[in-house]
């Protein structure tokens, strides 16, 4: 949920701009009338490549739902963003899911699970979804300035 009125207004603006540009709101899209900053869980479909929501991250309960015909098209769509925090692959064939995961441009790819983070796993994205990693050994290395000193014989 958004943590401030400004954040909620930003989400409502994203939804309104997307709707004006042609998305279909299947469910939600409105502020919940109660104390705090709550947005109804929102599902949008028919998101064309020229729609602003196609290239935006919505930090709230907004599901952008796409339908594709092929695996290659799904991978192209998943990678057609300036953001790459996390991706999810669901498949009964785990070996095939690993092949798909290798083609996704994301800092984290989960197979057959969602949000399985823990302090022992690195967390971070690629492109405009973060720089470097936090948590785990990879995360602490982000705070260490390593220096190589080599003496020639």
TrEMBL record:
<dbReference type="InterPro" id="IPR016161">
    <property type="entry name" value="Ald_DH/histidinol_DH"/>
</dbReference>
<protein>
    <submittedName>
        <fullName>Aldehyde dehydrogenase family protein</fullName>
    </submittedName>
</protein>
<dbReference type="InterPro" id="IPR015590">
    <property type="entry name" value="Aldehyde_DH_dom"/>
</dbReference>
<dbReference type="InterPro" id="IPR016162">
    <property type="entry name" value="Ald_DH_N"/>
</dbReference>
<dbReference type="Pfam" id="PF00171">
    <property type="entry name" value="Aldedh"/>
</dbReference>
<dbReference type="InterPro" id="IPR016163">
    <property type="entry name" value="Ald_DH_C"/>
</dbReference>
<feature type="domain" description="Aldehyde dehydrogenase">
    <location>
        <begin position="4"/>
        <end position="149"/>
    </location>
</feature>
<dbReference type="InterPro" id="IPR047110">
    <property type="entry name" value="GABD/Sad-like"/>
</dbReference>
<keyword id="KW-0560">Oxidoreductase</keyword>
């Amino acid at each position: 949920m958004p943590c401030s009125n400004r954040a909620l207004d930003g989400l409502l603006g994203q939804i309104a701009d997307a709707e004006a540009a042609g998305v279909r709101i299947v469910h939600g899209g409105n502020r919940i009338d109660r104390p705090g900053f709550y947005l109804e869980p929102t599902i949008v479909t028919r998101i064309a490549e020229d729609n602003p929501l196609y290239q935006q991250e919505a930090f709230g309960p907004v599901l952008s739902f796409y339908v594709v015909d092929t695996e290659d098209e799904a991978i192209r769509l998943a990678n057609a963003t300036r953001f790459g925090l996390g991706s999810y692959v669901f498949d009964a064939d785990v070996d095939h899911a690993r092949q798909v995961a290798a083609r996704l441009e994301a800092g984290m790819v989960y197979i057959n699970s969602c949000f399985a983070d823990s302090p022992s796993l690195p967390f971070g994205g690629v492109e405009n979804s973060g720089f470097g990693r936090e948590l785990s050994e990879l995360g602490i290395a982000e705070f260490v300035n390593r220096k190589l000193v080599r003496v020639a014989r």
